[in-house]
Specification:
By secondary structure, the chain is mainly alpha-helical. Helices cover about 85% and strands about 0% of the residues.
Length: about 200
């Protein structure tokens, strides 16, 4: 027959520590509400811009879209997903940070695929800024998310700030990359199309 073991003092400390972490997370609700809403709105705006560009697509648009446009939607989507995830009423932070780590790892793999696509496409020669905003900075943001399940119980407050910074970085990366793509299609590609017509 199994007997219930009486609670130990250490168990109470663990429970109190988990409550403290969850209390810290509730302080972030408005931050993630704002960032998540911004990411969602920017996803919609990106679809509008792509629909306008699709009226007169540039040469090899599918090749450059996979390398430069789709990752922007992925970054905005991950920012939206993490924002929603961290606003959910979790009992403990463990599941939320485990999901942050899982999504971060999957997105980091996607960034490596994006880097391969950037090298493989022939429509545009990426410069340092492209590599920085399409590969390096996203890997930093996703690396922070990957580390979060391992650091949250050691440094809860700092981990929550790191996750918030990663999500905000993804939104700013997306804004930069979306603007860069629009500027390229409107300012660089437009004169070439006009000459050819």
């Amino acid at each position: 027959m199994l007997r219930a073991t009486p609670p130990r003092a250490n168990d109470a400390a663990v429970v109190q520590g988990a409550r403290d972490v969850m209390f810290e997370l509730t302080k972030w609700d408005s931050f993630y509400g704002i960032v998540g809403s911004a990411a969602g709105a920017l996803i919609g705006l990106q679809f509008v811009v792509m629909a306008l560009i699709a009226a007169r697509p540039p040469a090899r648009a599918a090749q450059t879209g996979a390398a430069f446009a789709t990752p922007t939607i992925v970054h905005f989507s991950i920012a939206l997903l993490i924002s929603a995830l961290l606003c959910a009423p979790w009992e403990t932070i463990r599941v939320a940070t485990a999901l942050c780590g899982l999504f971060g790892a999957a997105a980091a793999v996607y960034v490596l695929i994006t880097a391969w696509r950037m090298r493989a496409q022939t429509a545009y020669s990426p410069d340092f800024e492209d590599w920085l905003f399409h590969v390096v900075l996203p890997l930093v943001a996703y690396g922070i998310l990957v580390a979060s399940p391992f650091t949250v119980f050691l440094q809860a407050r700092q981990t929550l700030f790191a996750i918030g910074s990663a999500v905000l970085l993804l939104v700013f990366i997306g804004i930069h990359n979306a603007w860069d793509a629009v500027a390229y299609f409107v300012l660089v590609n437009q004169p070439n199309r006009d000459k050819g017509s």
